[in-house]
Amino acid sequence: MELKQQLLLLILTLLFATATPQYVRPLPRKTLTIPWDSISKAHSSYPQQVHISLAGDKHMRVTWITDDKHSPSYVEYGTLPGRYDSIAEGECTSYNYLLYSSGKIHHAVIGPLEDNTVYFYRCGGKGPEFELKTPPAQFPITFAVAGDLGQTGWTKSTLAHIDQCKYDVYLLPGDLSYADCMQHLWDNFGKLVEPLASTRPWMVTEGNHEEENILLLTDEFVSYNSRWKMPYEESGSTSNLYYSFEVAGVHVIMLGSYADYDVYSEQYRWLKEDLSKVDRKRTPWLLVLFHVPWYNSNKAHQGAGDDMMAAMEPLLYAASVDLVIAGHVHAYERSKRVYNGRLDPCGAVHITIGDGGNREGLAHKYINPQPKWSEFREASFGHGELKIVNSTHTFWSWHRNDDDEPVKADDIWITSLASSGCVDQKTHELRSTLLTP
């Protein structure tokens, strides 16, 4: 009897020792209230809501807002603190939305800049000095990724975790501020992200919360387009809602889920032209971002991306896009390589990462059984890190916000389609697809 009890005790001990503790999801957090005392006491010509973005080869766009409508639009910059040996003149805009009038929104493009270099800059000749670092010219390069950011306690946690990541560029696939027509929340958001967005380029595309239609006001995306100008002109696009850029051997295409995308649209025409210019020897990695996911096994927003997928997925497949990143669904999901709903070794890996910290909460319900193309899924707030090591391999990891600590919950090594033979295999298909009227 004593021997049996000892064996039972041993078995129970082993079971408890090896059991994986179940992850308990933390509770929601409230919307942040941003203190504006420091701004109200500052001079009206001091820069606010400073953020930067890539603006063509070796150039960066600096954006800031001033309350003073007469503040000049220029940026002084250099590689030493307080010593500015270059100056760039900019442009300015403003907008009205119902009873709201924006401050003066400044955009100035600085450069040419050295790669992988720290620069110090000042906006409009007044206020504090800011510091930025340009991306490297070659691999490795790291992208931080999170969509549906918002401005809640979880947003603050996500931003803190991204700040710990040694990233070069931040990618945001739509839904920035969740202002939803309340324009002062755009100002709150600009202040919230300034510590990060003023130091590394933020490359964003629009989501449904940027549309801001209300009553008879139909000037869609006026707030977003005025505040977050992206390099659409530099990439041959006619709309700030879709564009492309290249950095360190990576060609990134930011598409618009809320711009026309059918085969007769301007966006579709632009996409075909942009893909035809991609040189996979110079940029072996090809990434695409937009807001509404095409591959989604969450019950939230089922089928919302089907029309855009039907029109554009054949183009992306013919071009051998490596990775497609979307938001919209407030959860995380990673697919296997897939095309046309089926596993395909020459298809793209699709990632849904609409989990930055929005106020609407998480999407907990998934479709079961899990589709064959779906590899990992979880409803938690967090962020992703894409470390492109060289022309053939990249390391993707997703880090959930486990209370106030970033915990890596999913990771995978991804091999580029350029090195797998898929690009060469589909050269004729790409050419015929892109040349078809």
In brief:
With 437 residues, the chain is α+β, with helices and mostly antiparallel strands.
What are the defining features of this structure?
Immunoglobulin-like; 10 helices; alpha+beta; Purple Acid Phosphatase, chain A, domain 2; 2 domains
Q: Compute the number of structural domains.
A: 2
Structural class category: alpha+beta
* Helix content, binned percent: 10-25%
What is the strand tally? 24
Per DSSP, the total helix count is 10
- The CATH architecture of the largest domain can be named as 4-Layer Sandwich
N→C terminal distance: 84 Å
- pLDDT < 50 stretches: 1-24, 36-41
CATH class of the largest domain: Alpha Beta
Rounded mean pLDDT score:
90
Q: The CATH topology of the largest domain is what?
A: Purple Acid Phosphatase, chain A, domain 2
Shape: globular
Beta-strand portion reads: 25-35%
Give the CATH superfamily of the largest domain: Metallo-dependent phosphatases
Oligomeric organization of the protein chains: single chain
Structure description:
With 437 residues, this protein is of the alpha+beta class. It has helices spanning 2-18, 37-40, 153-164, 184-197, 222-227, 266-276, 306-318, 417-420, 422-425, 427-435, and strands at residues 48-54, 60-66, 74-78, 86-89, 91-93, 96-97, 100-101, 104-110, 118-123, 130-133, 141-145, 169-173, 202-205, 243-247, 250-254, 285-289, 323-326, 332-339, 342-343, 348-353, 374-378, 382-388, 393-402, 405-415. It folds into 2 domains: 47-134, Immunoglobulin-like (Sandwich); 138-434, 4-Layer Sandwich (Purple Acid Phosphatase, chain A, domain 2). The strands form 5 sheets. Strands 14, 15, 16, 17, 18, 19, 20 and 21 form an 8-stranded mixed β-sheet that branches. It has a 6-stranded mixed β-sheet with strand order 13-12-11-22-23-24.
